[in-house]
């Protein structure tokens, strides 16, 4: 048992893997924050998707009017889905990249730019900033993931 | 080759990692079940999203009327998306947590509560149960993931 | 430091893990491609979701008419969401499967069929092919993931 734990500790003690763990936790927590922002807008805008969510506003027609879409709620939901579409590839490709033995400084550059780009994307979406603010922040995160995928495929390719 | 396999086996033989693997497989299979439930409702409610899916009901107007949304289908789809939004963070943060060397009993507590909360969330969504049933089951899974993220960041932080 | 790197290299040098890394990178890149296809259709069909995206078409009513849904855009988006629903389970269950020590030939069979099925699914969705083309390609990828989950649970189960 002590031997096994030692091996696991070696993985988590590797600096590149620690950096991956840190930035992955950060972007996943940022993505999770979108759920709270959606809930906040649903409650303040009184715009719900499920009849059982409006039961506290009374019965029948008086509650039914809150079963509706709201522009602010939909905006947060689009941001949340965009997170899923971009952070899932980072989660998988970033892990493989971290295990492919990159230089620590190069790895940190990738992780930091990705996390910064996704945080900027969220602000650009929610404020909202005029384009190309959101588009650029999306593209930067996308390019970082492609760069890591290139490194993974060129170092481990086994078809 | 034998040496490499031995090293991999050490990872999968670690009890915390085995528990992570077990509960991750369970919640991912549960999430996959949502696809089958969606298909079941689409077929029984005759509510499809793609014209090619309704071709077996005839041509032209007779088939077109099945290109529609249905309350039951949409309910399952919302549950499926909520799974993605919550199980993806568990997948990533849970892996890092399992590698951070927690006590087995603490890790099992986290994994069991998370899996239980997500299963409860599905029942609450599909039956549906009155609120705050669904809200509470969502919040419990969310809190477990935050707790694991806190442990990951406090033990490996490398910015 | 050299010792740690050697350990990480052992993971990434394992043939089954290299195959997992290769096919995971491929299906994640394929999923990322859906973002570009969505952007292509949004621009060529002039169908956007956010007011700030239509600002370059002028102000007021002249730009507002481009805030609309388009059948081609929605089709790509459904394909993208289906990727998320199916590639996320592959990402997690495939990793655990690769660590469970399967035969290389068996693992390659799983990974190759999954990747082929998801690429076929995308073509079936976007062309679109008549059913059951899309349904079958979806079911093949789903069955491969179930097969890997069965192997994971039967080899590591720790409840």
From TrEMBL, chains A, B, C:
Q: What is its EC number?
A: 2.5.1.18
Main location as per UniProt: endoplasmic reticulum
Q: Name one GO molecular function term.
A: glutathione transferase activity
What InterPro entries is this protein classified in? Answer: MAPEG-like_dom_sf (IPR023352), Membr-assoc_MAPEG (IPR001129), MGST1-like (IPR040162)
Question: Transmembrane ranges?
Answer: 20-41, 84-101
Topology with respect to the bilayer: Multi-pass membrane protein
Question: Keywords, A to Z?
Answer: Acetylation, Endoplasmic reticulum, Membrane, Mitochondrion, Mitochondrion outer membrane, Transferase, Transmembrane, Transmembrane helix
> Which reaction does this chain catalyze?
RX + glutathione = an S-substituted glutathione + a halide anion + H(+)
Which cellular component appears as one GO term in the record? endoplasmic reticulum membrane
SUPFAM superfamilies given in the database record: MAPEG domain-like
Q: Where in the cell is it found?
A: Endoplasmic reticulum membrane; Mitochondrion outer membrane
> What is known about what this protein does?
Conjugation of reduced glutathione to a wide number of exogenous and endogenous hydrophobic electrophiles.
Q: How does it assemble?
A: Homotrimer; The trimer binds only one molecule of glutathione.
Q: Which family does it belong to?
A: Belongs to the MAPEG family.
From the Swiss-Prot or TrEMBL record, give the protein name.
Microsomal glutathione S-transferase 1
Query: Which source organism?
Result: Oreotrochilus melanogaster
